[in-house]
Records
---
Amino acid sequence: MNANEAIDAAIEALRRGEVIGLPTETVYGLAADAGNTAAVLRIFAIKGRPADHPLIVHIAEAEALAHWALNVPATAHRLAEAFWPGPLTLILRKQASVPDVVTGGQDTVGLRCPAHPLARDLLRRFGGGLAAPSANRFGRISPTSAQHVRDEFGAAVPLVLDGGDSDVGIESTIVDLSGETPRILRPGGISREQIEQVIGPVAVGSGAHSPRASGTLEAHYAPRTPMLLLARDALEREAGQQRAFGKRVGLLAIGALPEDGDGLVLPVDARAYAHGLYAALRLLDARGDNLLLVERPPDTEAWLAVHDRLRRAAAGASPDDDAP
Ligand code: TXA
Ligand code: MG
């Protein structure tokens, strides 16, 4: 099947109300027709996600904003112009026509125009919006390749469009524009600085009236193997001690592995690190070690989104299948 035939098959599946694996530049999504309540419910069932956690609606063009959102503020148009297609999700007041199942019953909707060429082609030819969360079981590590999605869901998601490795590697930045002040609910591929250059000062983190975002739960993006986040010297000490106790320890280091360390290395550049992060966590998790030790990245703005994911992954790491 060439890419065109794969897209045709995906459109037919979506029109039948099925759920497909969708490549995007951030991570892979589990997509269904956002206008079809039964299809969207299927996403929740497959993912094991609580029904009150809203999904992002993916659209082909910024022109579709007004179809999904009400009273679209000028800040939304400016951000869309600057960063779409790309790794930015906007939270806006929803149109009454947006199904409740998509928004978890909230009066806002998350909208994103993804940059991946396959996703764009699919969206243009499909015509409607696609509701899609990341294609991982709830609370677990997000997928950055078609194979990750197949590993995660097998026969439950027979059609996965293969768009290669996701470029960015971590989820989109979420900006809430539904309240008084713009607010970053989830850091991601687009930095606070980039956003402030376009719309001025933004708040960070969820406010008292912020909508719920499961990507902002304390425990998320987590491997099954217990995981600790440590500075380089502490990591080397801990690895030595754990090995002395007979434990199998997997390391995720930056730049180079410590002497006689066993594990994986990610680049010293924050963007390149983010690109490889989830694949590395999946590989390490599959080794069945007793413990994962992850080197803590520098405390600078460039690493903010990576820090966010690592902190939640460490908080959620647990051998239980039904961890949050
Ligand atoms: O990069 C991404 O955003 C990926 C790709 C597939 O597009 N999608 C993704 O979806 O990360 P998901 O469902 O795993 O995370 C979306 C986050 C969730 O934390 C959800 O609660 C939040 O966005 N969200 C969606 N709609 C919202 C809304 N109306 N209000 C507040 N948060 C919302
Ligand atoms: Mg997710």
---
Amino acid sequence: MAIHHILHYPDPRLRFKAAPVTRVDDEIRMLIDDMFETMYAAPGIGLAAPQVNISKRLIVLDISEKRNEPLALVNPQIVVLGGAQKSDEGCLSLPGISEGVERAARIKVSALDRHGEPLDIEAEGLLAVCIQHETDHLDGILFVDYLTEMKRNRIRKRLEKAHRQAM
Ligand code: NI
């Protein structure tokens, strides 16, 4: 397994629309394992393939406290959205940033699992937030896109400055 480098906002590669996975094979399963390792090491509760510069529709999550409930979704599609909830979100591509975002409270998702088998999930609360956040990444959408332009610009400047200081 290998830990991948995570792209940081405002890297333009985070804005690509990812391509569907056409076959869930050993290569994809290896990528899933690497993404879990990268996410757990970060540490984070979710990671989308575009964040590690792989433009494929694939996300991994684990919202459990013990970090032992890995969930990999290939080609996830949110088919039903209901209600609303607002919670603070962060993102491994925006280190140190946390802002309140409104999302659907309940969702239904259709995806494939790591064996290419259909997987249908109903989610609410944190899991629903996390799936919506990660699925957004596949379309090049970041949680800061839901904030005001002024707030987003302030965050961008802060991260660019942190990046310069790290070089
Ligand atoms: Ni994110």
